[in-house]
Amino acid sequence: MLKRYQTWFGIPIPPFKEEKYGANSTTIRFVLTGKMPSKKNNLQAVTVRVHARKWANDQQKLRPATWADVHKGISMTKSKMRGNAEYLKFLEKVKPILMEQMQSWSSRLSAKGLVFPLLKSTMTLKLHFKHRYVSDTVNKQQTIQDALVHCGVIANDDYNCLNPINSKSACYYEEIIYDIAFISLTTNLQP
């Protein structure tokens, strides 16, 4: 039976392709606590001067620098974006935690076909915030997804590997003592 396109505001929308996880699936859970920096908000611009310094040192051996040399040296610098110290520190903190939890799941379910990194899974993320500040759920979600990839829990966080994703967050002011990320991943066990 062919499913029909629906039209909304003049745009035909095809039926959505959803994969079902069957009887051979399992849900595994991970828990992280503490501050989760927003990766996007924590990028830092840095100047790469290696080539300019080498060139300047070589020029200095030949003759005194001119104003043109200074301009050329400056033009040889480049900039790049990198995660700042807070985000990198977060990755260092959560890696052993995720690795320990992953090992726990592996020892319990590897005989049944659980293999890391997960090549295909769904994710439900629940963020519990201890403070009253309004936080951006999507930015925190991206941080968590990147940490899962970085630690080898999931192969990638693109739509082929991690889909669908359900995220929600709520304020637990004066109910909890630290922020909590509760991550549920559903995947098919390999035969």
Describe this structure in words.
The chain is α+β, with helices and mostly antiparallel strands and 191 residues long. The protein has two domains: 17-42 and 85-188, Holliday junction resolvase RusA (60s Ribosomal Protein L30, Chain: A), CATH 3.30.1330.70; 43-80, no CATH class. It contains four helices and eight strands. The strands form three sheets. A four-stranded mixed beta sheet has the order 3-8-6-7, with helices on one face. The protein has a two-stranded antiparallel sheet with strand order 1-2. A hairpin with a 2-residue loop joins strand 1 and strand 2 (11-13).
Helix tally equals 4
Question: Average pLDDT value?
Answer: 90
> Beta-strand percentage?
25-35%
Strand order of the largest sheet: 3-8-6-7
Provide a short characterization of the protein structure.
With 191 residues, the chain is an alpha+beta fold. Helices cover 32% and strands 29% of the residues. The protein has 2 domains: 17-42 and 85-188, 60s Ribosomal Protein L30, Chain: A (2-Layer Sandwich), CATH 3.30.1330.70; 43-80, no CATH class.
